[in-house]
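Lab intake sheet, docking and co-folding queue.

SAMPLE TYPE: protein with bound small molecule
LIGAND NAME: fe (ii) ion
LIGAND FORMAT: SMILES
REQUESTED OUTPUT: full 3D complex as structure tokens
PRIORITY: normal
SUBMITTED BY: R.K., bench team

The fields below were copied directly from the construct record.
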Amino acid sequence: MFEAKFSRRSMVVMTLPASLSAIWAAEAKARPHALGVPMQQEALTYDMNELEPYLDSRTLKLHYADHHGQHARGLQTALDQVDLRVGNVLSLMPCLRELKKPPQVRKSILQLSLAQGPMPTGVQQLLPEDLQRQIRFHGGAHVNHTLFWRFLRPRGQGAYGPLNGVAKVICDQFGTVQSFKEAFASVALNHFGSGWAWLVYRPDGKLVITTTRGEDNPLMKDYVNWQDEGMPILALDLWEHAYYLKYKQNRRAYIDAWWHVVNWDFVEKAHQVASR
Ligand SMILES: [Fe+2]
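RESULT FIELD (auto-filled):
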């Protein structure tokens, strides 16, 4: 266990700016990040059958179109309820409990204000808990799946293992790439039920392997241990819908296959961006 001394407040996650035209969040002190997640589902950069035989096309189609698609629509529906517009969904993750409704200014007051003085700021209210839960669940799922797709590529296209900076950090911390893979697989296998496994770049520069429940992720500082907060630089979906059709309950076989299609070039890019 890493034992460096730093306060919880110092663990403010690197998040990402957004064109949050109507988000009034105390923790939205984000810095630019090239790994932003737009509201819309991104098109995959590979064909559905290009990850065969490791990840089968039938599962991929259902996973991308049905599961992920449902969450992207669910997030949009939730935000529409309070007229929130978000440019970068990642920027919501660290401040889910502080999200507030945009100010509501009555037209008559606005007209009066324009005639007599400064515009009123309106009243800001925290979002109802039910809506916070919807944004946490659907927003988390949208972010997680978007990252998951980016960290995949067909075998033979790109590096077959960690590169440059991230390779050095992995070897410094875990000894060898193989040791890292075993540690990651062990953590993923020991996670009970649905969730995600992550390699996280923490604000103190350390890498940590962790898992989250449901659709939570390491950017959600309100819902993860402070030791696990940070920017994901590798993501693995542990929900059964990600592998059941091909691997049934054999999560180990799924993980072993998944390593063959990890996009190490993107892992390197994510590490570069996170460590700037
Ligand atoms: Fe999934």
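REVIEWER NOTE: The first strand starts at residue 195 and ends at 201.
SIGN-OFF: pending second check by T.M.
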